Amino acid sequence: MRIFVTGATGWIGTAVSAELLSAGHEVVGLARTAAAADTLAARGIEVLRGELTDLDSLRAGAAGADAVAHLAFVHDFARFAESGVIEHHAVAALAETLAPRGGALIVASGMAGYPGQTLTEATPSTQHGIESMRGGSENLALGWAAQGVRAMAARFAPTVHGMGDHGFTAELARIARTQGFAGYVGDGMNRWPAVHRTDAARLVRLAIEGGEPGTIVHAVAEDGIPARDIAAWLGAALGVPVRSVAPADADAHFGWIGRFFAADIAASATLTRERFAWEPTGPTLAEDIAAGAYSG
What we know:
By secondary structure, the protein is an alpha/beta fold.
């Protein structure tokens, strides 16, 4: 298959692109900068210059592809609403281009916003419309399944971990080094799912190759790790103490990530494993932390 990947130089996108290439697929990557283009070309990926706000470039990538893996997102938490608008328009442009040929589209999504329940693949997204979180892109994409697109959503665990990770867990480690202790909010019993990057990439490939229209997949290897355990592992790896941060002080201590790290997120991947015979084989989050993934 010829597969267009947005976010191909990102943390997840790099692994997905490598997974697709190793399976014999042809990969086209969206590159916003000359440096990104050089990186993709060096990895044997065809380059398409453009960005998420350039809808013509997205349409061009989708027009020449059998499938699109939309993994890019504008991670600007100071302008999160604007990022959602960009995401909404990007997904619409990709879907409408794929529809006449029945192409496949898998969009990256998250797991926040379902407090008090274990999120499953059968749980519909609560986000609808351009003004909602991530521009309602999951429901927007899945809505195109009725219009000929093999549309799917990949919900990624809050921590997609591994050596070289610069995401949420890396930010928690940075804060622990700066503050002199590894913190968790309140009693720390709120949970975060986790998955290793290589396992997540393999799941995306499996979904692109055989997922049915309207499918939601959960990239989750560990259903819900208590936040206090994550803090304890970071504390041990960094050689700093571990302590609770009062909920009222979470924003001041953790900054923008405080609300995410205080959220209780539990998710199951039972249906995903059954549908795709997907069994995670990568290191656990505890193993990656102990191995030094976040000690630098």
